[in-house]
Amino acid sequence: MAKAKLEYIWLDGYKPMQSLRSKTKIVSDFSGKLEDLEMWSFDGSSTEQAPGRSSDCLLKPVFVCKDPARLGGNGWLVMCEVLNANGTAHESNGRATIDDDDNDFWFGFEQEYFLWDPANNKPVGFPVGGYPGPQGPYYCSVGAGKAVGRDIVEEHLELCLQAGLNVEGINAEVAMGQWEFQVFAKGAKQAGDETWIARYLLERIGEKYNVSINWHCKPLGTLDWNGSGMHANFSNTILRTSGSKEAYEKILEAFRPVVKEHVAVYGPDNHLRLTGKHETAAINKFSWGISDRGSSIRVPIATVERGWKGWLEDRRPNSAADPYKVAARIIKTVKSAEEV
């Protein structure tokens, strides 16, 4: 019988940012279907998710895809929700808070990150003991000295596509060593699943090159370099089909009174990034605008040109945010507008 290597992946309980964890389960003749995956368990006392005297936590498979990087083949990546021993959702389980059972909400996450040189403790390409030239030539760049780390980024893209993830693009970002990939899915939970799996694959490739992946939203501190975001593009049936500016304005204004609630799940240290500079809005204010990348939520020009049929982009989530929690909060706010 053929042996399959199932990599069970979950989010730990560390704060303010959860980390990825995984372990391998060997089974015979796996069908490749989610329904044929068994529940598993792990020691939650080693991941900040349970006390030592009652340490068992459960892993519930929720998404599976091929693992094209696994040596010898027949590997599978299994994204899991963490449950308590009694089968209820663990408090660290952001996926369980998403209210989108009919997949009416579509999400596209623009995941920015830095490739980080652990020896230099700076982004790859930064000179030892100093800094490169100011940002400007690096965004969507081509050429040595500008686009640094492309071999890692291209390998990551290829593995994501081989795994069947719906990665829709990549590009070099504004700072040297900073890159972005984009994930889209029709359904908030799947968008989160695929984004986390894509993050996992990037971390694994980093092991190979001895390069860390820095998800912090402002790893270069207060210096004049852009931070990293995870812009959340979202739509539902109303946004996709209404053709009504008034319907859009009603939804947009529903975000105004819940700024704190959104910022609370939009990633740690966001005050360092949401300053009103570097294409961001101020953290404690809400604004929206057509084609305005300095607003909290941008209305894409394509949405307007299609007669107010399309999507919105919340630019506030940062690179370290949990896409599950971001989606859950956005859905809650949009639905609150529909209830008025």
Furnish the topology, listing elements before pairings:
Layout (H helix, E strand, L loop, with lengths): L2 E9 L8 E9 L11 E4 L12 E11 L8 E9 L22 E12 L4 E2 L26 H14 L3 E6 L5 E9 L1 H22 L2 E3 L15 E6 L1 H5 L3 H10 L4 H5 L24 E3 L6 E3 L1 H5 L6 E3 L8 H17 L1
Parallel strand pairs: 1-5, 12-13
Antiparallel strand pairs: 1-2, 3-4, 4-5, 6-7, 6-9, 6-10, 6-11, 8-9, 11-14, 13-14
Order of helices and strands: EEEEEEEHEEHEEHHHEEHEH
- Relative strand content: 25-35%
Name the CATH superfamily assignment of the largest domain: Glutamine synthetase/guanido kinase, catalytic domain
User: What is the CATH architecture term of the largest domain?
Assistant: 2-Layer Sandwich
Plain-language structure description:
Catalyzes the ATP-dependent biosynthesis of glutamine from glutamate and ammonia. It is found in: Cytoplasm. It comes from Siphonobacter aquaeclarae. This is Glutamine synthetase. Belongs to the glutamine synthetase family. The radius of gyration is 20 Å and the shape is globular. The chain is built from seven helices and 14 strands. Helix content is 23%, strand content 26%. It has helices at residues 150-163, 188-209, 237-241, 245-254, 259-263, 301-305, 323-339, and strands at 3-11, 20-28, 40-43, 56-66, 75-83, 106-117, 122-123, 167-172, 178-186, 212-214, 230-235, 288-290, 297-299, 312-314. The chain folds into three domains: 3-93, Glutamine synthetase, N-terminal domain (Ubiquitin-like (UB roll), Roll); 105-228, 2-Layer Sandwich (Creatine Kinase, Chain A, domain 2); 236-340, Creatine Kinase, Chain A, domain 2. The N and C termini lie far apart (58 Å). The strands form two sheets. Strands 6, 7, 8, 9, 10, 11, 12, 13 and 14 form a nine-stranded mixed β-sheet that branches. With 340 residues, the protein is an alpha+beta fold. β1 (3-11) and β2 form a beta hairpin.
